[in-house]
Design goal:
A three-stranded antiparallel β-sheet has the order 1-2-3, covered by helices on one side. A hairpin with a 5-residue loop joins strand 1 and strand 2. By secondary structure, it is mostly helical. The radius of gyration is 36 Å and the shape is rod-shaped. Helices cover about 55% and strands about 5% of the residues. The chain has two domains: about 160 residues, Tetratricopeptide repeat domain (Serine Threonine Protein Phosphatase 5, Tetratricopeptide repeat); about 90 residues, no CATH class. The chain has nine helices and three strands. GO terms for molecular function: Hsp70 protein binding; Hsp90 protein binding. Keywords: Repeat, TPR repeat. This is Cns1/TTC4 wheel domain-containing protein.
């Protein structure tokens, strides 16, 4: 009997061949039945998706080992299971199933579509783009794949822009650190951020450092803030403008005591020679 044959052995007698044909027919019928049950569970809604996956898995098991004659049918089963895993959020399993469906049937547009969706969910953008293009080779007019490809290309473009932005920020930070080291400048803990916000020094294209500068008037509990103060500037021109005779008095200077001639300016520096 064919049931007692050694694995890999070829049937020799007509009886053995008939037995194998009968077994194959039974397994094929079982696979079809499990497939239909799986489809029915999908139609019944999300609560039954796990049962649908189980049915498709059983159907696939009935078709193993796969032959070239079974490839198209098996591809549909893998594509169906990929679809349900996609709905369940099992994106890695969905992608694995979709890829297997494509291997079995390279013309399966549904398998490419599901592979794209799963790859997108996993943020595998180059893979998603590849599946889109391969699917469009099979069906150039497929609007869904065209939309997905546009979406993937947009994400890839944004990803590249973000990489360039990060690279530029890192390069700028390194240049700034080198400029400060060259000048012997050491930064301490940020102070007065409630008055200045998160303002940081920067290095311009000419290699000039620009600093945020806070002017404090402790007697009147007030302040002024200069957001961009080049290291090549001095404070005198700023004070000339702020406290010139032609400028209106500051709102908090009711007695007009703060004039250009009366102002004395001090700056705070840490002990030890650091600026």
């Amino acid at each position: 009997m064919a049931l007692l044959m050694e694995p890999g052995a070829e049937p020799l007698t007509e009886s053995e061949q008939a037995d194998l044909a009968g077994i194959a027919a039974i397994k094929e019928a079982a696979a079809r039945e499990y497939k239909e049950q799986g489809n029915q569970f999908v139609r019944m809604g999300r609560k039954h998706y796990a049962e649908a996956v189980s049915c498709y898995t059983k159907a696939i098991a009935q078709m193993e080992p796969l032959s070239s004659l079974d490839a198209a049918d098996a591809s549909i089963l893998f594509a169906n299971r990929a679809h349900v895993n996609l709905l369940l959020g099992n994106y890695r399993r969905s992608l694995d199933d979709a890829e297997q469906a494509i291997r079995l049937s390279p013309s399966s547009v549904k398998a490419y579509y599901r592979a794209v969706k799963a790859a997108l969910a996993l943020d595998l953008l180059p893979d998603a783009a590849s599946f889109c293009r391969r699917g469009l080779e099979q069906d150039p007019a497929n609007e869904e794949l065209k939309k997905l490809l546009a979406q993937v290309d947009a994400k890839l473009g944004e990803q590249e822009r973000q990489r360039a932005k990060v690279a530029q920020a890192i390069a700028s930070a390194k240049d700034l650190a080198a400029a400060m080291e060259k000048r012997g400048v050491k930064l301490g803990k940020a102070a007065y951020q409630e008055l200045t916000g998160v303002k940081k020094p920067k290095l311009d294209e000419q290699g000039v450092l620009h600093w945020p500068v806070l002017l404090l008037y402790p007697k009147v509990m007030s302040s002024d803030f200069i957001e961009d103060f080049p290291e090549t500037d001095t404070l005198s021109p700023h004070l000339d403008v702020m406290f010139s005779e032609s400028s209106p008095p500051l709102p908090w200077d009711e007695n007009h005591a703060y004039t250009r001639d009366a102002i004395e300016l001090y700056y705070q520096a840490p002990v030890g020679g650091s600026k």
